[in-house]
User: Which sequence fits this backbone?
């Protein structure tokens, strides 16, 4: 996802711009990036369609959508926390201290302790690390499998398409979580297997988005022009379709992460994911169950962390979708 | 068009483009038979010749263009480029041959990859064909490609700095120039230009038409110029073929077609284009046709929403022809060659006599 | 006909009553047509706010249209002609800042409340657009859509509305109207749809019909019919028509008078015959010369390929409207004066021919000569 590095100080010319006044047609003729007016009508069309949102403009537009921007900020905090977990966690998340078991939130333990006296804050921080790890790896796995299949189905159509579409339909017949739980149960409980199970469960959505984008793009004139210029399938797919589908895929990746986080929490909760004593938000919720009345903080904080992470990534993803893809292509 | 190889072809080689009996049917929506978008088109573009393919929307002219450059595969018929039959070649076999023909599209904002810089857009065919044809990679150095790109940009009237811009930073006319530079990058024998000026403003159209005329003169490629703009085609084309509902109904040298159109449809088409001169325009006799191609407004038994009738035992134009008589409804007119001073012309109409005497559609249906 | 002096100059715009100036010039012109124009636009400006700053889509244009008259507003994309027509209709989004005056039969529409505008739109002032498919509601029958307008504006009941719809479809040249009213837009061809749009637009016998590129999406053989229909409407109903177009052929066919726009400003205004025969503004001339026309090629010297005349350069951005001629950077006649001050739309000094239009106005410091014929200077 090359478009992500947000701070390149390139360009002033926004790509998405004046035309959005929403008037039927005319104002689009007022040139956007101060380029020119001949392009007027035509440029309007590009803006609505395929114009690439460049990083600088992207960040600026995202900032205008406050929800999406706060989502992005919270998501960024999660990523940082996950990366720096061993440095910032105040205690060893696995160290039991029976003397202070079930301590409520306080100065020593900001989020309290659990039944074994382990520091909740440290466990949430490390749990977030596990969540992010599963989230990113599972999404990467889903993309590695789903993007080529989606390209294949969308570009070649016919047999390849019906085959891939059947596969997708079959996988989609199971709700995501049911599929993930089933796969994890078959593979056996471990963090790696949970990641694989979640990744595979995400594949059909990735295929669908990739296929839809490919179908849309392959009929555009510049694809025809590439073929007419002697381009083979590899050139068309790698140089033209994939880069132009990137923004839709980026959105899909961003909304895939929270799905994976929830999946990880559920699998760990059910004992199919991270194994105790390793910290995980799902494991924490699971072990909080008997103490829900006596020590509600044991459940509340990991629960809040899950909700915050999920919400943040979803808001960020939706904002990205609005910025990158005004037409709102399928999820 | 004429079956004989074009006499004007230099070096006595095969014509740049030779299309014989081209047919392209599409499956009709809801599975009701097929739509005959192109139904038996034959035409020839000699080397260095510009042939205009004129028609209204739904006439199938763009489908012909797509079949010629094999972005679409014909249902039947043959397409030869420089004598080589490319109709049935696989995509892989076709790739090395693609340097001989290329296409320029109507909408320059849709035909350039928005994520690429102009240097890559124009350089792409250069790189592709060097690699494909197995020529020493010596020619592939970044600098050489860059140099060639700038040279090409210069030829289409763009400053070298354009190479570093992206399509959305350019005006419509500049984009179309980039498109032309890309199409001509590997020196094709045939350029298919599909409505290259229709999406542009008047003053930009003029410069793009001039550019095409200049490039054509300097580089001598054959050109199939597909358009609905009769003024543009008159300016650019040596010969003109008029299409109606998937069929060529008249061909003639440009000047002759404009001076004396034979087919009633051609007459109507030419008379319908308003001339930008009020007194002249007011004085013109115009033929106003009933109905149009783009819908089902023609009543039962006539061309459906696809615009194309299912049978061809009649003249395709008879539903709108002010001169149609019984024979037009029961027998499809054949393509006949007429004698003419400036070259052969053909027409498909029962009413045109063998000596070229044509009916006057305006006399039948005049509106002042 | 009625020569207008759209108050384009700074001086005129600050004058207390620009309309009196125009009226005076009308009187001076001694036009045969008496009476007030049905639509009078003065100093119309439209500004949009964009990230890059203000965009002046329309900059102080003005024109008059009389009953039964066709005024063509001509220009290339981005010149502001469509925005101007939407501003007259009051159809621009809230983000647009509109100033100036739009008088419909003496009533001010600029700044009027949306409610009263809604009453005017579709009855006294109506509009047709380029793409009839998107202007018609796909899920309502043609009869319903026409009837809706009649019932809203004229209070007809269902049956009366239906009868009137049949009449209207008949009057716009749609065969078998009684059957057609039950059809849906997708069942009609492009030309038929545009005819339906026109039927809706003239349903309430509007004083002014604004037609924004009405034939651009249609084939030429269909275009001819639509243009004939528009011409017959103004003769039959006395509707004043403002025809927005980029096609000079359409203008020549249809228009009585022409207003040429460039980069948001009116640059020339004259009777159609006059404008085509004796364009004064270098831009108008450039536009006329750029169109290929029959014989362009035959006129070229032997052995040489004909060339169309190009206008060098590109249309400037609209983010600033400087006090200079916006065409100056592309104009071969431009000098310091052109970049120092904005030329006002004034009567051309060179007007002296017999059939010269007294209302011929041009915004140029160095207009082309009165006796110039098209083609002069055309050679490269």
Assistant:
């Amino acid at each position: 996802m090359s478009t992500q590095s947000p701070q390149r100080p390139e360009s002033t010319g926004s790509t998405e711009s004046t035309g959005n006044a929403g008037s039927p047609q005319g104002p689009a003729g007022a040139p956007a990036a101060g380029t020119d007016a001949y392009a007027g009508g035509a440029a309007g069309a590009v803006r609505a369609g395929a114009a690439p949102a460049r990083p600088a403009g992207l960040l600026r537009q995202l900032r205008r959508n406050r929800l999406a921007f706060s989502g992005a900020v919270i998501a960024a905090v999660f990523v940082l926390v996950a990366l720096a977990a061993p440095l910032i966690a105040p205690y060893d998340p696995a160290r039991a201290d029976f003397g202070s078991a079930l301590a409520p939130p306080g100065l020593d333990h900001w989020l309290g302790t659990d039944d074994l006296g382990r520091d909740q804050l440290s466990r949430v921080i490390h749990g977030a690390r596990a969540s992010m790890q599963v989230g990113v790896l599972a999404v990467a796995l889903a993309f590695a499998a789903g993007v080529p299949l989606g390209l294949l189905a969308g570009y070649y159509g016919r047999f390849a398409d019906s085959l891939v579409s059947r596969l997708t339909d079959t996988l989609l017949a199971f709700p995501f979580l049911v599929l993930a739980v089933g796969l994890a149960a078959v593979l056996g409980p471990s963090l790696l297997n949970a990641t694989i199970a979640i990744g595979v469960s995400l594949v059909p959505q990735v295929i669908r988005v990739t296929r839809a984008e490919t179908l849309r793009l392959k009929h555009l004139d510049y694809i025809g022009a590439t073929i007419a210029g002697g381009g083979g399938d590899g050139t068309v797919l790698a140089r033209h379709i994939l880069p132009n589908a990137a923004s839709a895929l980026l959105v899909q990746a961003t909304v895939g992460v929270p799905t994976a986080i929830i999946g990880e929490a559920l699998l760990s909760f059910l004992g199919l994911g991270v194994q105790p004593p390793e910290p995980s938000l799902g494991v924490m919720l699971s072990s909080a169950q008997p103490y829900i009345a006596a020590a509600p903080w044991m459940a509340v904080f990991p629960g809040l962390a899950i909700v915050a992470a999920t919400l943040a990534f979803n808001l960020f993803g939706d904002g990205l979708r609005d910025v990158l893809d005004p037409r709102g292509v399928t999820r | 068009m004429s079956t004989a190889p074009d006499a004007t072809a230099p070096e006595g080689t095969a014509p740049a483009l030779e299309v014989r009996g081209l047919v392209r049917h599409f499956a009709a929506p809801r599975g009701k038979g097929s739509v005959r978008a192109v139904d038996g088109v034959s035409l020839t573009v000699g080397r260095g010749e510009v042939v205009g393919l004129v028609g209204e929307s739904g006439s199938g002219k763009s489908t012909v263009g797509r079949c010629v450059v094999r972005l679409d595969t014909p249902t039947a018929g043959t397409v030869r480029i420089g004598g080589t039959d490319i109709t049935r070649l696989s995509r892989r076999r076709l790739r090395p041959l693609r340097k001989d023909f290329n296409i320029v599209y109507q909408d320059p904002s849709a035909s350039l990859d928005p994520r690429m810089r102009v240097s890559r857009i124009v350089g792409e065919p250069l790189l592709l064909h060097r690699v494909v044809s197995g020529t020493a990679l010596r020619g592939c150095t970044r600098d050489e490609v860059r140099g060639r790109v700038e040279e090409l940009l210069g030829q289409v009237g763009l400053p070298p700095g354009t190479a570093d811009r992206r399509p959305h930073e350019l005006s419509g006319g500049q984009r179309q120039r980039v498109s032309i530079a890309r199409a001509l990058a590997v020196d094709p024998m045939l350029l298919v230009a599909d409505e290259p000026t229709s999406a542009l403003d008047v003053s930009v159209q003029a410069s793009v038409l001039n550019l095409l005329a200049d490039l054509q003169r300097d580089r001598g490629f054959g050109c199939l110029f597909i358009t609905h703009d009769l003024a543009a085609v008159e300016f650019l084309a040596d010969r003109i073929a008029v299409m109606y509902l998937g069929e060529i109904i008249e061909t003639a040298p440009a000047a002759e077609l404009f001076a004396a159109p034979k087919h009633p449809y051609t007459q109507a088409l030419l008379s319908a284009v308003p001339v930008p001169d009020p007194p002249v325009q007011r004085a013109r006799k115009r033929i106003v046709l009933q109905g149009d191609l783009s819908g089902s407004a023609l009543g039962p038994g006539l061309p459906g929403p696809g615009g194309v009738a299912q049978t061809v035992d009649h003249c395709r134009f008879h539903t709108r022809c002010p001169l149609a008589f019984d024979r037009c409804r029961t027998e499809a007119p054949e393509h006949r060659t007429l004698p003419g001073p400036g070259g052969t012309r053909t027409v498909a109409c029962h009413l045109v006599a063998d000596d070229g005497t044509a009916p006057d559609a305006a006399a039948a249906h005049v509106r002042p | 006909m009625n020569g207008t002096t759209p108050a384009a100059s700074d001086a005129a715009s600050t004058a207390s009553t620009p309309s009196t100036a125009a009226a005076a010039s009308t009187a001076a012109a001694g036009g045969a047509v008496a009476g007030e124009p049905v639509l009078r636009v003065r100093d119309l400006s439209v500004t949009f706010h964009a990230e890059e700053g203000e965009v002046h889509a329309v900059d102080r244009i003005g024109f008059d249209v009389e009953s039964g008259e066709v005024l063509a507003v001509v220009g290339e994309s981005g010149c502001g002609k469509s925005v101007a027509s939407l501003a007259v209709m009051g159809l621009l989004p809230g983000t647009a800042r509109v100033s100036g005056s739009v008088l419909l039969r003496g009533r001010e529409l600029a700044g009027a409340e949306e409610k009263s505008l809604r009453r005017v739109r579709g009855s006294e002032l109506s509009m047709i657009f380029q793409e009839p498919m998107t202007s018609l509601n796909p899920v309502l029958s043609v009869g319903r859509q026409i009837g809706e307008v009649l019932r809203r504006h004229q209070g007809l009941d269902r049956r009366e509305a239906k009868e009137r719809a049949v009449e209207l479809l008949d009057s716009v040249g749609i065969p078998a109207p009684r059957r057609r009213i039950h059809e849906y837009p997708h069942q009609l061809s492009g030309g038929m749809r545009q005819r339906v749009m026109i039927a809706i637009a003239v349903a309430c016998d509007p004083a002014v019909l604004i037609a924004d590129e009405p034939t651009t999406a249609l084939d030429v053989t269909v275009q001819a019919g639509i243009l004939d229909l528009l011409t017959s409407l103004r003769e039959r109903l006395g509707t004043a028509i403002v025809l927005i177009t980029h096609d000079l052929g359409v203008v020549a066919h249809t228009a009585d008078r022409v207003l040429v726009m460039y980069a948001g400003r009116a640059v020339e205004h004259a009777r159609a015959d006059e404008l085509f025969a004796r364009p004064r503004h270098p831009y108008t001339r450039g536009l006329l010369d750029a169109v290929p026309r029959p014989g362009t090629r035959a006129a070229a010297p032997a052995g040489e390929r004909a060339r169309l005349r190009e206008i060098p350069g590109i249309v400037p951005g609209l983010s600033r409207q400087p006090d200079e001629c916006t065409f100056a950077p592309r104009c071969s006649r431009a000098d310091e004066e052109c970049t120092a001050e904005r030329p006002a739309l004034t009567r051309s000094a060179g007007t002296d021919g017999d059939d010269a239009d007294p209302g011929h106005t041009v915004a140029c410091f160095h207009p082309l000569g009165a006796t110039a014929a098209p083609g002069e200077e055309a050679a490269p």
Remarks:
- The first strand of chain C starts at residue 39 and ends at 50.
- The radius of gyration of chain C is 21 Å.
